[in-house]
Amino acid sequence: MLPGLIDSHAHAGHGMLRTMGAGDPNAWMDACAVIYTSASDEQFWHAESAMTSLERLKAGVTTGVSLFGGGDSIMRVDDPKYAKAHCDAVARAGTRSVVVGRAFAARGTHALSGLGHRAADGARHRCSDHAGGLQQDHR
Length: 139
Known about the structure:
alpha/beta
């Protein structure tokens, strides 16, 4: 693949949720809070990543940087299998991505800190077909 543009700020998961809430930002945030922290499985993250990767390619983007989840820093970092599903779809599309997970909820700065999800604060994942899908870098 030839080098292309770089999308330096995205949120994994938003591709599937961007039209939820019917224009109500509070409803959208509430949906993100539930879906990103507990109601999304590996198939969700794989499908969202596949769709987003193809949308990026259509726009000439071959590399992306994504926060793994979003909303108000609500991220799916309780198990690396979700990031692996995301990275598998990126690699299959032939693009590259850096996936960043930082769980502010783990530090109690968000109302969802009581949900009981484990957080891998600061974990970063690089996705590429040469890397076999997922590399973890805990710098």
